């Protein structure tokens, strides 16, 4: 075990301090930092137009002047004609004014007139609609008026109510999909390391020395564990950066305020990622043992990476029937279970037996992949100029 850990630590250090890895690690962080700075600048510039005094021209008296709510971002003042509203705009008493058409009560048509700076349209429209509804409901009982103004809140539930999501909690509903995209990106970036870790030692002829001290299985296990740690480190740093950005942007972006992560989802994500990285790394390292150069290795690795993203090709199918037979089968296949389970987790309540069975099968797949990599490495480790034939591969994996 100590030899495996020593090899793992060597591979971890060797790859984490490479400029290429540091560049891959920092690029999303730089993009994220630029996006955050841009959002701050945009928010500061828009803050001037997200509140203020707004006039409205109502020649037919559709909306009589009423008291504005004390906490309203926009306050509305009624004018009988557009001339007086234009004069107030020129004096700076209002930042813009609305012109209600004569058939406003039936058509709802409104024109916005502003001088130089357009107010934030979304906030203004919402504020005016709330003001309009308050005037139209003035004759109704207070309880009814308040209920209409607050609107309806929809809840999306499973039949057994094991999972319920409100309409204002949709960002949390979609968060697992974001994690799947991060996972795919990290896996693809790390795929080259697993093959190159074996090819480098075959090309520089250090393999003869290494195999005198460790067994093929120990060597492959150490490389796989070390390089899996590299990929998980990359994923961890990206996730931490995303959480920091979320914490900073949440007060400024209303649709992010209800995002929350369940502890069960975090634990499931960590276990799935770890097991999948180990399994994927073992298969890619085995490919590195089979081939003579990196170009040939990429040809063999492409189908494996393609199988891993199959759930994304059937995202619509999984979305509309997350507990269907097709989604359940993908959840149990080791190569597709991580992405499928994470996507389903945000949609429905995944039965516990499916999660447990998927983890057991994934762990078995990881262990089997390491064993297989050791067997393949045994026959391919000293073949520097040619790869392993499929007939030789089939013979090597017989018990």
As a whole number of angstroms, the C-alpha radius of gyration is 30 Å
Largest sheet: 4 strands, mixed
| Proportion of residues in extended strands | 5-15%
Listing every helix as H and every strand as E from the N terminus to the C terminus, the arrangement reads HHEEHEHEHHEEHHHHHHHHHHH
Trace the largest sheet across and list its strands: 2-1-3-4
What does this protein structure show overall?
With 399 residues, the protein is an alpha/beta fold. The chain has two domains: 52-152, 3-Layer(aba) Sandwich (D-Maltodextrin-Binding Protein, domain 2), CATH 3.40.190; 167-396, no CATH class. Helix content is 65%, strand content 7%. It contains 17 helices and six strands. The chain has helices at residues 2-16, 19-47, 82-91, 104-107, 121-136, 142-150, 170-203, 207-210, 216-249, 263-290, 294-308, 310-313, 315-320, 325-332, 337-345, 352-380, 390-396; strands at 52-57, 74-79, 96-100, 110-114, 155-157, 164-166. The protein has a four-stranded mixed beta sheet, with helices on both faces. A two-stranded antiparallel sheet has the order 5-6. Strand 5 and strand 6 (164-166) form a beta hairpin. Helix 7 runs antiparallel to helix 11 (294-308) and helix 9 crosses helix 16 (352-380). The two termini are 24 Å apart. The model has no long low-confidence stretch (mean pLDDT 74).
Topology:
Elements: H1 2-16, H2 19-47, E1 52-57, E2 74-79, H3 82-91, E3 96-100, H4 104-107, E4 110-114, H5 121-136, H6 142-150, E5 155-157, E6 164-166, H7 170-203, H8 207-210, H9 216-249, H10 263-290, H11 294-308, H12 310-313, H13 315-320, H14 325-332, H15 337-345, H16 352-380, H17 390-396
Parallel strand pairs: 1-2, 1-3
Antiparallel strand pairs: 3-4, 5-6
Helix pairs in contact: 1-9, 2-9, 7-9, 7-10, 7-11, 7-15, 9-10, 9-16, 10-11, 10-15, 10-16, 14-15
